[in-house]
Amino acid sequence: MKRFFDIVCSLSGLIILSPVILVSAILIRFKLGSPIVFKQQRPGLHGKPFFVYKFRTMTDERDSSGAMLPDAVRLTKFGQLLRKLSLDELPQLFNVLKGDISVIGPRPLLMEYLDLYTPEQARRHEVRPGITGWAQVNGRNAISWEEKFKLDVWYVDNRSFWLDMKILFMTVQKVFRSEGISQTGHVTMEKFTGTKGAEKK
User: Fold this and answer.
1) How far apart are CA 187 and CA 91, in angstroms?
2) What is the per-residue pLDDT for 59?
3) C-beta separation of 200 from 121 below 8 A
4) Residue range 99-127: average pLDDT?
5) Which positions fall inside the Bacterial sugar transferase domain (predicted)?
C-alpha cells in the first residue's frame, strides 16, 4: 500500500509541478550554471547506497588553493529562496518513482554518518528514507541530531498510513511557513560527529 501511495504521489507531483520544475531548472541554469541537478550518494533501506537528486543551490566557488569555499559563501540568495520554498527537493520525486525512497520516511543523510550511529540511531534505516518525515515536521534543522534520530526511530516503531497522511499535511504547512530551514548560527545543518559518550554502531 505504501509503495502504491508513493507511485501515485510522485507521478501526480511530477505532472502537477512540471511547470514549477521547468521554471526552476531554467533559473538555476542562468543563475548558478551547470549542472542544474546534482546527485549525491546516500544510504537507503538497510543502509544500501543510492544516488539522491536535488536542484543545486550553491556555486562552485573555490579558494586560491582549489578548495571549495564554505557553504555560507557558496549559498546564494537565490539558493536560499529555493531552500526556503523546498523547491530544491523536487527532483527527489524521481527517486520516489524509482523506489529509492518514499514520500514519507527518515531523511537520507550522508554515507559518512553510518559508522557514527548508535545501534538505536541506526534503526532509522529499517525503513526506506523519505522526502519528508516525522523529524522534519517536528523541528527539521532547528533541532539537534539526537532529537532528530529519536523522532526517526519513533516513526519506525509507529509508522502507519494515517501517520504518513498527517506528516504530509504538516509538511505542506511547514513549507508555507518556512520553518526550521537552518540550524541557529548555520546556513544549513552542521555535520553530525557522533553522540558524545555513546557506543557507536
Assistant:
1) 21
2) 83
3) no
4) 95
5) 2-176
Task: Determine if residue 80 is left, alpha or beta; phi over 0 gives left, psi from -120 to 50 gives alpha, anything else beta.
Answer: alpha
Mean predicted confidence (pLDDT) in 44-56? 95
Residue 191 lies in a domain: no
Residue 151 near residue 91, CB atoms below 8 Å: no
Assigned C-alpha cell, 177: 511557513
* pLDDT: which is higher, 48 or 179: 48
Count of other CB atoms within 10 angstroms of residue 50? 18
Identify the residue with better confidence: 185 or 43.
Answer: 43
Decide: 124 and 149 in contact? Cβ < 8 Å.
yes
Give the residue from 33, 25, 50 showing the smallest Cα distance to 130: 50
101 found inside a domain:
yes
Report which residue type is found at 46: H
The reported pTM is 0.85
**Distance in angstroms (rounded) separating the CA atoms of residues 190 and 113:** 12
